[in-house]
């Protein structure tokens, strides 16, 4: 039986109402894939984002102009802007120190957030085309806050667009290096993923995402190519088997992030690509 190709979720948060409004005026948009949910929040100083008992780790992604206090696992740290933080399971809180947009990334274990996502109805079928999430081994030294200032790391040994990759047991984030120029249209990288999705999150800047859906036997189900323009903040969920490439079209900075779940084995097998690989072992036999 041929599994239909899922339609991409194109969430332009700046044009949509949030799923959650906080007491301090924070606004949060939730967009899910089969194995993860992305929470993009607009915050002001003092805004507090809490999880009473999150079942597993999650990521906090801060752009350069936004800092926050992070409390989790009995620890408290000051998370600098332009950083990646992994929070341990259990109770946690993030208090914004400056205003702006931030992103948190949760695995499918955060069922309350998955259910509230703006596109939750698109996954009523369980997404049979996506490989199931099986968490990788526990981190070296156990669960704790892990904070990574991007300025402390050299660019990973990845191709196409310079970036810095980090992984947890269930998630992988790819933080792209910002440039002041639009992407060279002679150096794009169209590709697809056989059995996993990709979320592309934009917290600053303007991008075009180019999507091409594969043909299926029934011509009535064919979809036209999509060349949508996205401002910030926005989230695109790219389904498995959809050919895609993205390009920055603005001059000036941008904050652009790709997200995968489970962590990509192909990236993880390449030395120097995943910058915290020594903290998160790969599965046995990988």
UniProtKB/TrEMBL annotation:
<dbReference type="InterPro" id="IPR014710">
    <property type="entry name" value="RmlC-like_jellyroll"/>
</dbReference>
<dbReference type="InterPro" id="IPR011051">
    <property type="entry name" value="RmlC_Cupin_sf"/>
</dbReference>
<feature type="region of interest" description="Disordered">
    <location>
        <begin position="1"/>
        <end position="20"/>
    </location>
</feature>
<protein>
    <submittedName>
        <fullName>Uncharacterized protein</fullName>
    </submittedName>
</protein>
């Amino acid at each position: 039986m041929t599994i239909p190709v899922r339609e991409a979720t194109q969430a332009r948060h700046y044009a949509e109402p949030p799923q959650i409004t906080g007491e301090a005026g924070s606004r949060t948009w939730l967009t899910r894939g089969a194995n993860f949910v992305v929470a993009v929040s607009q915050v002001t100083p003092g805004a507090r984002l809490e999880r009473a008992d999150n079942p597993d780790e999650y990521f906090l992604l801060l752009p350069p102009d936004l800092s926050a206090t992070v409390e989790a696992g009995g620890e408290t740290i000051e998370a600098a802007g332009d950083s990646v933080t992994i929070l341990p399971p259990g109770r946690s809180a993030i208090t914004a120190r400056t205003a702006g947009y931030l992103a948190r990334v949760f695995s499918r274990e955060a069922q309350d957030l998955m259910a509230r996502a703006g596109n939750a109805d698109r996954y009523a079928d369980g997404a049979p085309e996506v490989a199931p999430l099986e968490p990788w081994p526990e981190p070296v030294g156990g669960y704790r806050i892990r904070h990574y200032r991007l300025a402390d790391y050299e660019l990973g040994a990845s191709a196409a667009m310079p970036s810095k990759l980090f992984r947890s047991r269930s998630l992988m984030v790819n933080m792209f290096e910002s440039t002041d120029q639009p992407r060279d249209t002679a150096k794009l990288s169209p590709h697809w993923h056989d059995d996993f999705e990709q979320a592309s999150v934009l917290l600053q800047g303007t991008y075009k995402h180019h999507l091409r859906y594969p043909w299926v036997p029934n011509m009535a189900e064919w979809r036209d190519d999509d060349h949508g323009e996205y401002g910030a903040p926005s989230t695109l969920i790219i389904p498995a088997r959809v050919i895609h490439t993205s390009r920055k079209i603005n001059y000036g900075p941008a904050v652009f992030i790709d997200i995968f779940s489970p962590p990509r084995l192909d990236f993880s097998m390449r030395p120097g690509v995943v910058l915290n690989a020594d903290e998160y072992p790969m599965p046995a036999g990988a």
